[in-house]
Amino acid sequence: MHGRVDPVPGGWTYTNLSNEGTFQDGRRITTRAFNERLGLRLGHPVAGPELTLVPILSAAEEERRIARRRLGKRLAILGGVAAALLLVAGVLGLAFVVGRDDPVKPAGDDTDVLEAAKAATVKITAESHLLDDPSSTGTYHGSGSIIRSDGLILTNAHVAAPESPGLEEKYGDDVRIADPDYLLISLTDGMTDTNAPASYRARVVQADGELDVAVVQIYADEDGKELDDELHLPTVPIGSSGDLRAGDSVTVLGFPAVAGDGKSITVTTGVISTVLDDPDLGPRSELDTDARIAPGNSGGTAINDDGELIGIPTSLFADEGTTVTSGRIRSIDAAKDLIDEAEKEAD
After folding, report:
1. Do residues 159 and 124 touch, judged by C-beta distance below 8 A?
2. What is the pLDDT of residues 51-61, one digit of tens each?
């Protein structure tokens, strides 16, 4: 739970309930009183979803509020451009997947395919601090896919290397997070679908902020000691996103915060709603989906019916002025050049 909203005389109060804390303008706060619309960003400070808290006021209070707004005193709402109070619940939280709430079967209904994908999906945890205030520290987590048995892992740049050039332009620079010293990697327990305690440390091999993709390599155990033996980790095969069409099935795996702070892997299914052309990244570089994505899914696994990796769950898209949201997946074909470079460097 990120926080609680309570009625008080003359308005409402937001109270932080997040272990990582709530931040206003880079400073940690415990409570924040408000009596007009208030912008609240949950989880990831640049890719996390924004909420608008709208206080319930009496008719007289509402008339006074409207009058004040006519005088030019505005607060930002979701997607608005006015200067606003920004509350960030937690230092980081990382992208999300949200869709159908009903129990769903994995794409293709192939248990072996799904179990293999689960085994290759990892939880990534790191400690960092605000660039503008190094004393403001916190822990965040995201997800990743093992693409090579020696511990090469594909994820998002905003998970592995949040200082990567291009991320500010993509998500804004309201809250900037420092690159962590290392990443902790937790494997999935195949018996319980929970993430085991961190087993390894990993470091960034390649990262591209504009693409929001990174490749990291396991190099030590969880305590930083050199590995004694070669790794033989489960992997997910890399597929192709070139032939994907609207209506094709997709299954998303990761460790979002909705599952007990990312303690259990989640599996959600949906379809590719549309294939998008990013003006900076080229044609068919982004996939829009109705599959459920939530904070912590960032960098995780998106597979087709054959269990092949077709993309990286990256962010949520909110249509300004509506309540419509959808998940965005970075297509795997757009990331293949970066993967090739990382493999050469890791060899």
Report:
1. yes
2. 776 665 444 44
Residue among 319, 82, 315 at smallest CA distance from 213: 315
Mean of pLDDT over the chain: 79
- What is the dihedral angle through the alpha carbons of 136, 139, 142, 146, rounded to the nearest 10 degrees? 120
Neighbours of 319 (CB within 10 A): 11
Tokens for 182?
Answer: 């290392």
Which residues are part of the catalytic machinery? 158, 212, 298
Those residues with Cβ within 8 angstroms of residue 171's Cβ, 6 or more apart along the chain or in another chain: 46, 47, 158, 315
Q: What is the pTM of this model?
A: 0.69
Segments forming the whole domain that contains residue 20? 3-89
28 contacts 22 by C-beta, under 8 angstroms: yes
The answer for residues whose C-beta is within 8 angstroms of residue 270's C-beta and 6 or more apart is 99, 100, 249, 250, 252, 289, 290, 291, 292, 327
Of 197, 178, 93, 95, which Cα lies nearest the Cα of 140? 93
Residue 159 — φ and ψ, nearest 5°?
-90, -50
Query: Of 12-16, 34-38, 96-100, which range is least confident?
Result: 96-100
Task: Give the chain's domain count.
Answer: 2
Whether residue 135 sits in one domain with residue 202: yes
Structure-derived torsion over alpha carbons of residues 284, 289, 292, 295, reported in degrees to the nearest 10: 40
CB-based contacts of 263, cutoff 8 Å, min separation 6: 194, 195, 255
